[in-house]
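Q: Two folds, back to back.
A: First:
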Amino acid sequence: MRALACVPSLMTLGCTSPTHSSAQHPLRADHQDQPWDTGSPGGLDSGDPDDGSSSDEDRPQTDLYGDCFSGFMDPDFELPDYDAAGATIGSHCLGTDQQDIGHIERVVFIGDSVTLGTPPADSSTWYRNRLAERLAERYGLEEPDWVWQGVDPISGKPLTNFDGDFGVCAWWGARTDDLLETSQLPDCLPEETRDLETLVVITAGGNDVFKAIQSLSEGPSPDELAEATDQWVTYMREALEWLRDPHTFSAPVHVVFANVYEYTDGTGDLSACPGADWAGFGDLDTTEVDRLTNQAMAAYLDMAADTQTDMIFMREAFCGHGFNAGDPSAPCYRGSGADTWFDETCIHPNEAGHAAIADMVMAVIDE
């Protein structure tokens, strides 16, 4: 079995002392004053087969740092080149706003252990189970039972993939190549369901970063690391393009996926989590992996804009809620009362983290 997901990407996020409470908007407090939605079209249109994509000239001009991150992030920090994507950002600053998700008949959860859920957090608190309850109430869907909400700790896979109007095909250790090549998506979206308007929620990429970190002991060249990064980013893009192909689906498929978080609060100190040294990556020099992951996150937002899907800023929202959350000298510091959103494994959300992810996905759906 692969190592448990989702290990963080290790890019340093530069942050300043907070000027807001993270309870309402983890990224910004005064964002409601900003004119956001530029009317970028969302969803699948009939007609042209390529209607699910967006051309560069159609994209809005953005200043993501100024509009969303300036309240807590160091202006000298080099963000991923998010602005180049020209994505439409939600007024909540928790993710993009590129789809009109007004109707859902089925919900599918895909990806790694962030989505499937892991102990020690109680399964009732896992974000997919929180979302299942809220979405069932919102859209009049049949809720899944307690078996669907669990996990087989031996295989690291769901106890059952389908119940009610919900599916889950995520598993522990999954990487982006599992989305299509190992058939997570085709298995969870079989042909007989493709005439139902479906919401697909994905977390993927953290284990691809972890694979790169593990490879550092073998002394890979920068070119080898870059080639591997290009490959897993390509797998992610291919998955989104498959989901948005009107030749594959006769009904709209709405997609919300997350970028990849990190647990060091911008310090780059992997040993901040006590379990990191035990896992063997507490003292690794991850500079090149960090740089490539930074590029990969820019590519994530770019593919969201290209496919007119939505991405939540999980990476940025978790900044300041890691294992240096109480350190005022950390580049990302939200105040002495900031909660830690990671569990003892270093790499998985705790109950507060799962609650935050559920809220972020709902914010994107609602707008």
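A: Second:
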Amino acid sequence: MIIRIISVLLISITIISCQTNPVQNNFDRKSERLHSLVDSLSNYYRVNLNRPVADFYLSYITAGDTFYVSSEPQQLYTADYFFRIASITKTFTAASVMLLHQQGKLNINDVITSNIPGTSNKYIPENEDYNVPFKDEITIKALLEHRAGVFDVTNQDIPATVIQPYAGRNYLDYVTGLPDNRYHTFTFDELVGVVSKNNLSNFPPTSGQYKYSNTGYNILGKIIERISGVSYSQFLRQNFFIPLELNRTISVWQGTDIQIPEPKINSYLYENGTYFSTTFDNMSGNVSEGNLISTSRDVTKWLKMLLTGQAGINMSNVDLMKQVIPNGGFPYGLGINFMEGLGYGHTGAHQSYLTIAAYDPSDGVTVLVGCNFWNYPDIFLQMEQMINIAKKGKEILRDPY
């Protein structure tokens, strides 16, 4: 009788031990479905368009789980692989400005020629480099919103009508193309100085128009440095990277800082029937608007903390950042845009990384979708496809089964 009871118990234990954990099983099923999303899009480029390297990666933070999948067939990436986050950097710059605003060290409604609160110093230097058109009308808020009309030295070619050796050229390309000048270190003063010395502007800041301007964010970077007394990179480290434990987020600023740490995601540009690596680049011309290197884990963590009031900026100021205005594309606020179905966040594009990241307060889900190539000139189609798989991924996560 005792032997029979023991046998029954052993059989019962064996049956229980063989049963699959339903929670884990559900997580695995969802991960597999997410993986099929990125694989499908990757295969479209690899097979249909003959793009040998076409990797996509997808990351989510939900209330109870964290998901990360990638399409790379030879070596699966993880959420801790480094890549250039490009204009997602602007969320850090905007957060820096809002932190200083919260501390009473600046007022976002001030014009940039006003005195820094409690001092006799102006927000911008009183020299020819910062004699930008309409400077007495440009507010800090307008710079954050891309509504100041500041000419964008990074993305706009210098007008052919100016009397300069770089007329009709992209200024950064011109400078780094000079003999032995590939690793030239650009500065805020130099970049803004190109605007000032050539009297370049897109429109008066009082016109109510919108035009994306990286150089406008260079001015914000200079303001952050003048108020804090430390470099832009140091400010981010002291106020965000270290206290929030964003241990794999790096602010590169020297012209020689062309590398990305290991393990990294390499990038590739497809153009005119060929492709080449674009992983290494001089990012000094993008400080404060697109220079950061990070990981999927850090970026999703950052956006969730920022937009839930856990990054040092209180919710009243976060709500100010989220006051987006329609502009013909993604409505834009203070360093934050809104993407229907995904939430508030930012996009990033720098040779040849594409990234979309957002936090949705309606469901508490944070998402990042990225890829490591540009299929030039169809980059906007790529981004549309990435947004679609990010939305489909959220549908998978909502599925109880």
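Q: And?
A: Residues 22-48 form the longest helix (27 residues).
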